[in-house]
Design goal:
Blueprint lengths: L2 H4 L7 E7 L14 H11 L1 E7 L4 H8 L1 H5 L3 E6 L15 H13 L8 E6 L9 H13 L2 E5 L2 H9 L10 E3 L9 H10 L3 E4 L15 H9 L4 E2 L7 H5 L1 H12 L4 H16 L11
Parallel strand pairs: 1-2, 2-3, 3-4, 4-5, 5-6, 6-7, 7-8
Helix pairs in contact: 2-11
Bound molecules: zinc ion.
């Protein structure tokens, strides 16, 4: 057992940069995870800010508008989800009505202020990054300084970046799972070097955590090489993830505790907060 295995868990604030509040969790009237439940889980976990997106967008709007969210000390950063329903997962990149929906949402904003990004969206075939609506949304995101949350493979990162006016020099993109299919660490490193606005979110990332519940060596080295480029998230895409929310966050605290304290704080909070200008939570408040 090395020193890392004995390090204390990270105890500072967490920014959950990949959260869904979908209709099967709570549809506005009924569901197993009403706002009091999810806010309670965040509060218990020391989560003080979230990127909120939901299918449909009403879930994010609910969290953004509730006084209980502020009382729980949780800052909401709303993203426009591209999905009104499950059918939209597979066709959004060529569906003009989704582009219209995004513009309508951006125009109306949320009770927590303007939307700050779009996504999460998925590309099961990376070639669809060149779909007409995908291209328009990448250009729109760069022009409006919206952050993109994308569940895609490494090939699609190149394609999406190529579809921005700056060819990827300016777009800010949170890469959900940093390659859920297991893009090699060297490939992730090369993409980070090429695209200064690329940020890796670490839920479900294969090979990230080793048997001692600490970062595997290659990933520890990558986080130390790019300490300002990684964030954490819950990815509550199904209700089961809500049931395990506290243990997911505890798992992050365990491996964050094995990093140098300044790096842990960046990955846990500062990097995501810096993307959106989220103020630091009040010291000594809820955890
Ligand atoms: Zn997700």
């Amino acid at each position: 057992m090395g020193l890392q295995a004995h390090a204390a868990d990270y105890s500072g604030p967490l920014f959950d940069a990949h959260l869904h509040y979908n209709e099967e969790a709570w549809d506005g009237k009924t569901g197993p995870h009403p706002p009091a439940d999810v806010l309670g889980r965040m509060h218990k976990s020391g989560v003080r800010a979230i990127v909120a997106n939901s299918r449909p967008n009403t879930g994010s709007l609910t969290l953004a508008g509730l006084p209980q969210t502020r009382e729980a000390g949780v800052a909401v950063v709303p993203f426009v989800r591209l999905y009104r329903n499950r059918a939209d997962y597979s066709g959004w990149f060529a569906d003009e009505s989704i582009y219209t929906m995004v513009q309508t949402e951006l125009a109306r904003g949320t009770p927590a202020g303007p939307y700050r990004g779009i996504g999460e969206f998925h590309l099961y075939d990376s070639a669809n990054a060149d779909g007409p609506v995908a291209k328009k949304l990448m250009a729109l995101s760069e022009e409006r300084d919206l952050v993109v949350l994308a569940h895609v493979d490494d090939a699609a990162i190149d394609l999406l970046m190529a579809n921005t006016p700056s060819k990827g020099r300016k777009l800010r993109l949170i890469w959900a799972h940093t390659g859920i299919g297991g893009a090699p660490v060297d490939r992730v490193d090369a993409l980070f070097a090429r695209y200064p606005g690329l940020v890796g979110e670490l839920s479900y990332r294969p090979g990230l955590v080793c048997d001692d519940n600490q970062l595997c060596p290659a990933w520890r080295a990558l986080l130390l090489k790019y300490p300002t480029r990684f964030v954490i998230g819950s990815d509550t895409w199904v209700n089961q993830r809500w049931q395990h929310y506290e243990s997911l966050m505890a798992g992050y605290r365990t491996w964050l505790g094995g990093l140098p304290a300044d790096v842990a704080r960046k990955v846990a909070w500062d990097n995501a907060a810096g993307l959106f200008g989220t103020p630091a939570p009040a010291p000594g408040a809820a955890r």
